[in-house]
Amino acid sequence: MSxxxxxSAKLEKPLKSMLKIVKRNRKARVDxxxxxxxxxxxxxxxxAARLVYRLKDLGYIRFIDPNPPRSLLKYFFSSHVVWFWxxxxxxxxxxxLIYLTPQKPPFTYLRYGFGxxxxxxxxxxxLIELLYPxxxxxxxxxxxxxxxxxxxxxVPLVGLILNYTPWGIRLTPIFTSLSLLTLGLASGAVAxxxxxxxxxxxxxxxxxxx
Length: 210
Hints:
The protein is an all-alpha fold.
């Protein structure tokens, strides 16, 4: 964990106190900082964790992985890309519900839910992760809104392209095309995030990690 040298005068008192604890424990793990905050500030553990993550969201501190993955393959299977595997799982679940489950409740309702997620959110979300790989680039609400908006733009475009192919606009071609598009964009996003991580590691090794 490290902190940025920014003006903290505008912070509320609990956040200022937490920032002081972080500065005293720059090399400590997040859980260690939270435990010390519980003792010193006399707050509940969940409140201490909330203060830490609030400082992170405001840009006053950042979390550093002490053992970052050293290759793209290791990065793919690290905790840095949990979002990618959740996306892959959603695509696989959609496939399962479409092709391998009976056409009756409750599978029908699950198909509606995952189908809507697959069409209205996942393609745009993958593109947003590719275009804005840093968490601080956009807020979660902005990512959600742009993901839906871009999905609504990408899906009709895929349908238009399929309309001029021998496969036409049918279930299997649409599902296959959207799956490949979503997973391709998400894989590109993972590669770009890994490139940024490598630059951060190089900067930190040269003494620019604060």
